[in-house]
Amino acid sequence: MRNFAKKFKTAKYTLLSFTALSVAGYAHAASPDAATGSGTHKKQVASRTTTTNKQVADDRDQKQVSRSEEMLVRGDRIQSATYQSPTNTPLTVTQPTFVMSKHYIENNLPATSNYDTVAAIAPSVMSISPNGPGLSESANLVMRGFSDGQYDVTFDGIPIAQTNDNTHHSTSYYAAHDLGQVEVDAGPGDATTVGFATFGGRIGINSKDPKKKMGAEAYASAGSWNTYNYGAEFDTGEIKGTHGGRLFADVEGTTSGGYVNYAAQRRSNYMIKYIQPLGEHTTLTVSGMYNHIDQHAPPGATRAQIAKYGPEFGLSNDPTNQNYEGYNRDAVQTDLEYIGINSDLGSGWTIEDKAYTFAYFHQPGDSGKDVNGTTANGTVYSATDVPGTRMKMDYRAWGNVLKLKKKVSIVDFQSGVWVDHQSNGRIQYNLDWTLDGRPAPNSAKAITRQMHDQNLSIQPFIQADVHITKALTFSAGFKYASFERDLEATVNQTTKKPMNYSQTYTAPLPSFNLHYMITPKWSSYIQVARGFLAPSLMYFYVGNPADNQVSAERTWNYQIGTSYQSRRLSVGGDFYYIDFSNMIGSRLIGQNTQYYNMGSVRYYGAEVQGTVYLAKGISLFANASYNQARLNSDNSWVPNAPDATAAGGIIYNNRNFYASLIDKWVGSRFGDSSNTQGMTPFNSLDLSLGYTTGRVIGPMNHVKFKLNITNLLNSHSINYFNGYASDGKTALYFTQPGLGAFGSISVPFDIGH
Question: Which of 3, 112, 373, 560 is the most exposed place for a label (fewest CB within 10 A)?
Answer without folding.
Answer: 3
